[in-house]
Amino acid sequence: MNNVMFEKVLLPLDDSEQSQRAIEKSIALYQAGFIKDIVIFNVYNTGKLDVTKLSYQEKLDTMRENSKTILETYQAQLEEFSIPSTIKRAGGDPASLILDLIDNDNGFDLIIMGSRQLNKFQELVLGSVTDRITRLVKIPVLIIK
C-alpha cells in the first residue's frame, strides 16, 4: 500500500441502503490501496427515549443490541475481503456524536458516509446529518448517494 491517501477513515453506518453503498465504496477504495484503516461507527439515536418510562432501559438495551448487530454485519462484509476494521458505537444525536468522535480523535483524514434523500420539508424541519457533518468538519467527506 504505497499509494495510501487516507490513513484512517471514519465510516458512520446505519441499516440503510445508503450505508450499504458506502461500505461497498470503502471496500473498493481499500482494495485500490487508497485507504489504510477503517473505523465503522453506528449511533443509535436515543433522543426519542423517555427516561421517565419504565420501559426505557429495555428499549435502550434493544437499541444497543441492534447497533451491535448492524456493526457486526458490516464488519463481516469487510472481513470477506480481509479488510481489518475497528468498531465504535454510541447512543445520542448522530451528527453530534460523529463530530465529537472526529474532534476527540485527530487521526481521521476522511469520512465516507451515505446520504439520504430528504424532501425539502424534511430537510427544513429535520436537517440532515450529512449536511451538518460536511459543514462542520475540516477533513474531506465522501458522500455516497
Question: If you had to describe this structure to a student in words, what would you say it looks like?
Answer:
By secondary structure, this protein is of the alpha/beta class. Helices cover 46% and strands 23% of the residues. The chain has helices at 17-31, 56-80, 94-104, 120-126, 129-136, and strands spanning 6-12, 35-44, 85-91, 110-114, 141-144. It has a five-stranded parallel β-sheet with strand order 3-2-1-4-5. Helix 1 (17-31) links the parallel strand 1 and strand 2. 23% of the residues are buried.
User: What is the number of E strands?
Assistant: 5
Q: What is the helix/strand order?
A: EHEHEHEHHE
Which residue ranges are poorly predicted, with pLDDT under 50 across at least 5 consecutive positions? 122-126
DSSP strand (E) fraction? 15-25%
Q: Widest sheet: strand order?
A: 3-2-1-4-5
* Rg computed from alpha carbons, rounded to a whole number of angstroms: 16 Å
Overall residue-averaged pLDDT value? 87
Q: Given the C-alpha coordinates, what overall shape results?
A: globular
Helicity range of the residues? 40-55%
Query: Which structural category do the helix and sheet elements fall into?
Result: alpha/beta
Largest sheet: 5 strands, parallel
Annotation field: number of helices: 5
The end-to-end span amounts to 27 Å
